[in-house]
Amino acid sequence: MKIIMASDHAGVALKLEIKALLLEMGHEVEDMGPYDTTAVDLSDFVYPAAIKVSQENVRGIFVDGVGYGSALIANRIYGIDAVVCQDPFCAKLARQHTDSNVLCLGGKIIGSAIALDIVNTWMTTDFLAEEKYIRRVEKVKAISEKHLVKLS
Ligand SMILES: O=C(CO)[C@H](O)[C@H](O)COP(=O)(O)O
Asked: Which residues form the signal peptide (predicted)?
């Protein structure tokens, strides 16, 4: 699977650890920066990365200080369903119930061991195609269709 990654300065270290795990798992990773801990503005990296995730219909993993900034930027883009996870249970449901395609993590709030566990769970858990989950995901998609601009 192809994974687009992005972060800000607060997420670089954890992003590199996650990138190593993903490569070890056999995934293709495109890291859209930044590549060092010089202070940056998160949206300069997460916004183009989220567009690429949507256009290429791949998955994204974004890392900042707490994760929420990445999620709120990414969820403004058509085709993105971004979640913030702080434990593997949340990651499991974020795939099974929500069919999320972007995972956002906070390098300031979770250690790398739990982060790698979250990533492993999120990457290996499929959407549960039960009627109620399909219906709920479709309702969220309908909101995007109504309010977000489709990418060309
Ligand atoms: O967590 C974040 C967004 O969700 C950012 O990483 C955080 O706001 C960066 O702050 P600072 O520039 O003070 O390190």
From this structure: none
